[in-house]
Amino acid sequence: MLKGAKNSLGKISKILEKTNDEREMLLKNTRQIVNLSSEAIIECHRNNTKSARKKIETARRLLEKYRKHTDSSLHRYLVTPEQEFVEASSLLAILEGNQVPTHESLGVREESYVLGLMDCIGELRRNIYDKIRVGRAEDAQSLFDVMEELYLTLYPFAHFDKIIKEARKKLDVDRILVEETRIAITEEMRRSELIKSMKGK
């Protein structure tokens, strides 16, 4: 009575075992992509853009390699490494005064792209604060303009929270970051103007 079912289950077991092995391989090897992207972001904040670019390029090659061996059932395990890759690539582009790369040019899935840009807002905030600390208020203001525009461009994606996991949560955090950064820049600009007026007397 169960002969057919047992045969089917045996075949399914082998398929699932293969899928599980591929999943484990992906989880293990894509950690390197996440680490490279994180290191690239650190290099961006240190103004070591050449080093950041090398790390991003290495991450890109690894992503392309693993993507070729990943079927649709395992795509979700590439979201996090792709997301980190997008974040690092976008931050570098913005700090160098270039256009933010498209998801097509980065070769990532739509969900990864959107989430990566949302995370990039936090890194822009960090860079803005670094500029404020060294008295580069105008540069901080210019970067804030990009940060705010990126947030406003991403805000409508809160509507897709059921499709893009945690989109609304990330945007809520981004909104707070934008407002806090706006206050910090306003205070710094006022301080700078006050110092200029005192020197002029």
Automatic annotation (TrEMBL):
Keyword list, A-Z: Magnesium, Metal-binding
Which residues does UniProt call coiled coil? none
Q: Which residues cross the membrane?
A: none
Q: Which residues form the signal peptide?
A: none
Kindly indicate whether the keyword Metal-binding belongs to this entry. Answer: yes
Entry keyword annotation includes Nucleus: no
List, alphabetically, the Pfam families matched.
Answer: Translin
**Residues reported in the UniProt entry to bind Mg(2+):** 87, 123
InterPro entries tied to this protein: Translin_fam, Translin_sf
Q: GO molecular function of the protein, one example?
A: sequence-specific DNA binding
Q: Which SUPFAM superfamilies match?
A: Translin
Its name, as the record gives it, is Translin
Q: Which organism is it from?
A: Candidatus Nitrosotenuis uzonensis
Lineage, please?
A: Archaea, Nitrososphaerota, Candidatus Nitrosotenuis
